[in-house]
Amino acid sequence: MDARQNLKKYFGYESFREGQEKIINAILAGRDALAIMPTGAGKSICYQIPAVMLSGITLVISPLISLMMDQVKALNEAGIRAAFINSSLSEAQIAKALQLAEKGVYKIIYVAPERLESHDFIHFARQADISMITVDEAHCISQWGQDFRPSYLKIIEFVKSLPKRPIVSAFTATATQEVKVDILCVLNLIEPEVVVTGFDRKNLFYSVEKRKDKDRFVIEYVEKHAKESGIIYCATRKNVDNLFMLLSKQGVSVNRYHAGLDKEERKQNQDDFIYDRTPVIVATNAFGMGIDKSNVRYVIHYNMPQSMESYYQEAGRAGRDGETSQCILLFSAQDIMINKFLLENKDFSDLSSEEIEIIKQRDARRLKIMENYCRTNGCLRNTILDYFGEKVIKPCDNCGNCMKDYKKIDMTEEAKQVINCVAETRGRYGLTIVLGTLIGANRARLKEVGTNRYKTYGALKKYSESQIRELIYELINQGYLIQSEDQYGVLKLGDISKLQDENTHVILKVTEEKIQEAGKLKGKQRNTDKLTSAGYVLFDALRKLRTDIAREEGLPPYIIFNDKTLIEMCIKLPLDEEAMLDIAGVGVNKLQKYGQRFLAVIVDFKKMHQEDKTSIQDDA
Ligand code: ADP
Ligand code: ZN
Question: Nearest residue CA, atom 27 of ligand 1?
Fold first, then answer.
């Protein structure tokens, strides 16, 4: 059987996605490989398919116990013999697993990096037939990243200690150049096939909502998406508790997660979320590491996060199954204050004052970039991609900003007033003072610094503070003004020569104040949108069956079949095993295990709803 046939047999998919085949072919030809692909692109299959085709065992080194367990469950469901060895097992269980492994029972074994130093494990590995070592989350090897794991450095010694060098393959979603170089060097990959696919997650719809009534937004949104699974991130525990209470009072099936809860409760709440018992979770950023749940339909940030890195990682937990999902950031100016406070109060023990200064500057810069993301009127997707070093050409037409309606206004005269005002300050003051001065605010602080005697005092008094703020940000964007990157954010003049030309205009794009309803954020159609109401009835029935099976098997529902697979069943209405096997996500093993039960539900539905169409597509 070739790779394609194995893909069909075990995973029920017809074709490979971008990059997968190249990596698989390289491995099958005996070469090392490095794949850098975004979350949800399908990295696992790139080593799992070769693993079943190579003669010996594949060892997968993975940093998180929960991820390993999930992967092993999913593999066993697909009919691939796999196991994990980690600290969640007793000594006796580990001995037993190694015994079975020696007998060649497993094709894939997941281990934590620490295991590579264990005497028993090394003993096992030296006499076993190991075809490949796969390093998952390979960025953990790099000291540049935030996820550095010193034990990852042991991998290379371990590989060297083996009598015969196996193929080494490495996988990560982290795309920065430093990390890539680190992985290649530290892991000592030999003439590897390197595949880097685009960083973009096309199924994610990004939007920034500037709202005062965040609570109402969240309540409306969650109610409109009642059957969907979502994560709501808050900056502080207190925010988590408040929002959790509020949603509970509204009758939402919701849980919470933060470091202030005891371990038991955290575990319970996390499991309830993963197993779809409570579809919504409100959490701090302590939540999410090692969560592989594929059907998270939305991630709302109740507060602005501290960096683009964190935002991309947290928002990226939406839509791992490739289905359209929303990443919404609720922004208010207060978020900046909260984050500054949190950063100021970070634990800096063990660091020299020089190091602290460097970190503080870096934090301030990252925060500023995040703020720009929240304030930009440009394409949000491009802002993200650009930050991570990917070249972008035109707006994506599929993010909150690209889909907004704008009005363009000529603010050239007003811009000149702003510049005059900054000139009058001689570059000594920040945004608040410049703003207050221009709108002619009656504030003690302005009198104190004397800007109430400026010529520009009150020059733009017919505008609101937020309008002028937008204008100032635009001027910074265009380089007419420069804002210092330290905590003071002092405004200075940039290159203003262009403005002396009569033909230069400063155009401000302002959003048409059409109040968008919280539930009606746009975005590409979801697969469920293709279902008619009859189709939904079937979808619900199949979901119910999936929940029952999940309970019987002690597995998360998405490991049985994901939503996409169920929706395809609703649309194609397979009535026998052969038709069932045509559904993406139905492999041979799952067909044998569950096929009949799902078929029974579909056949039943057909009897009751003979005439009804289940999908709104044109007859296919
Ligand atoms: P990653 O590890 O890159 O985040 P996963 O390996 O978890 O991504 O894959 C994400 C999802 O995509 C899974 O549900 C997986 O079954 C699915 N998938 C992977 N490869 C394919 C493919 N060739 N065709 C269809 N679905 C695929
Ligand atoms: Zn866009």
Answer: 42
Residues with CB under 6 A from ligand 1: 13, 16-17, 20, 37, 39-45, 294, 320-322, 562
> 589 near 78, Cβ under 8 Å?
yes
Greater pLDDT, 577 or 619: 577
Beta carbons within 8 Å of 50's beta carbon, 6+ residues apart: 3, 24, 27, 28, 58, 132, 169
* Pairing relationship of beta strands 229-233 and 280-283 according to DSSP bridges: parallel
Closest CA to 558 of 13, 71, 8, 94: 71
pLDDT class for 620, splitting at 50, 70, 90?
A: very low
Question: 10 Å Cβ neighbour count for 38?
Answer: 20
Tens-digit pLDDT profile for residues 340-393:
888 888 777 777 888 888 888 888 888 989 999 999 888 999 999 988 878 888
Sign of the alpha-carbon torsion through 265, 140, 386, 325: negative
Q: What percent of the chain has pLDDT over 90?
A: 64
CB-based contacts of 187: which residues, under 8 Å, 6+ apart?
135, 138, 141, 155, 156, 168, 170
Write down the pLDDT at residue 523.
58
Give me the amino acid identity at 20. Q
The CA R_g of the chain, rounded to the nearest whole Å, is 28
Give the closest residue (by CA) to ligand 1 atom 20: 42
For atom 6 of ligand 1, which residue has the closest CA? 42
Interval between CA 430 and ligand 1 midpoint (Å): 48
How many other C-beta atoms are found inside a 10 Å radius of the C-beta of residue 324? Answer: 19
Q: What is the pLDDT of residues 128-187, one digit of tens each?
A: 999 999 999 999 998 766 678 888 999 999 999 999 999 999 999 876 778 889 999 999
